[in-house]
Amino acid sequence: MREAHELERAVGMWYYASDSDGTGGRLRESPSDFRVTEIEEFDTQPADADRGDYPWLVLRATLTSWDTNDFARELANRLEMSRERVTWAGTKDRHAVTTQLFAVRDIEPEDLPDISDAGIDVVGRAGRGLEFGDLAGNEFRVVVRDPDDPEQAEAVTADLAAFGGGEPGVPNFFGQQRFGSKRPVTHEVGLAILRGDWEGAAMAYLGAPSEHEPEDSSRARRFVEDTRDWEAALEKFPNRLRYERTMLHELADGGSFRDAVETFPSNLQRLFVHAAQSYAFNRMIAERMERGLPFHEPVEGDVVWFAESDAPEGVARPDSSRQQRVTADRVDVMARHCARGRAFVTAPLVGTDTELAEGEPGEIERAVLGELDLEPGDFDLPGEFDSAGTRRAILLRPDLTVERDPLTFEFALPSGSYATVVLREYLKTSPLDL
What we know:
By secondary structure, the protein is an alpha+beta fold. The chain has helices spanning about 5-10, 70-80, 150-165, 185-195, 200-205, 215-225, 230-235, 240-250, 255-260, 265-290, 330-340, 360-370, 420-425, and strands at about 35-40, 55-65, 85-90, 95-105, 120-125, 135-145, 170, 305, 320-325, 345-350, 390-395, 395, 400-405, 405-415. It contains 13 helices and 14 strands. The strands form 3 sheets. Strands 1, 2, 3, 4, 5, 6, 13 and 14 form an 8-stranded mixed β-sheet that branches. The chain has a 4-stranded antiparallel β-sheet with strand order 9-8-10-11. The two termini are about 20 Å apart.
């Protein structure tokens, strides 16, 4: 198997599914080269519906070069409200043109401000805010600039068809941005939280300098690691590192390491533990690749989820309520279901309610958790950090369209899956170029 880039290996993506050389090239030369549009799955009432029954105003925003969290903060600041009153269904990257839903509590359409590089339309009203997962998926249109050999796309597609059991498939890794592209530490914070090591969690975020970040940032991180002088560190940390500066203010005022970690917005606190789950998941499916176990069909001991019957076209998704443990006498039957797109082999996003697989898949799951010194009970945590866990399909089968001149990829993915795990197979470059 072809080994992945060192930054990808650091977050559990050890291998490529395709052995062919890539096309090379760069993504996001301009925001319009990377377009993401949510496939919406959220019911709304008309905009003039009773505000008492439907206090949330739902918006569709098309954003250019806006990180989702940053836009939500800017919107809240303009409306002079808490950021907690702005919700969304999926986090999008800054270096793109993205179209997604937001919900804002207790405002009227005429209250909406004009924000640079943001087109905002009112969709309607809802009785609750948006939650992560309140979308079916995302449609992508991605242009690759300056590829070295665009003809290699055909060879990669053939490799992925072999991996996917007849149609192109890729491992459903959590992408680099889940962990931090230039400084992948989010999962390290989460692992420390799960172990009850709040000092380790705080220092994983404040310290851990990276050669890929600006020198003033890495210099400040080295200083705080060497001195633990929170007051002096505030003079060193650039203003753009606002989360770190908020943590330092808390520590300088006598707060605990846990207090410092809990200065993050609630959605980011949850993200730390989710990133730890994601890292364990990546490790599990990378180990499955290493052992040569199939992704498109089950082996004895696997846990399979059947497909949702009413999922939108192009974003087939597993249904958590329809689970099947694969015994020796059911392997062939379940393989046929998977081949027809009616079922998916899964691996766990570990939490308090997780039941691990049996057989060789179960061996892999237990071995990875043992290496990480984790067990399901560790996720029984107070506040924003607990998680019951779930399972996730290990294979993506994007319905790809590839155009030439310029090299362009169009495809849709179910919510929670990453375009970069498809594109990395084709480009085979540093994740910093994705």
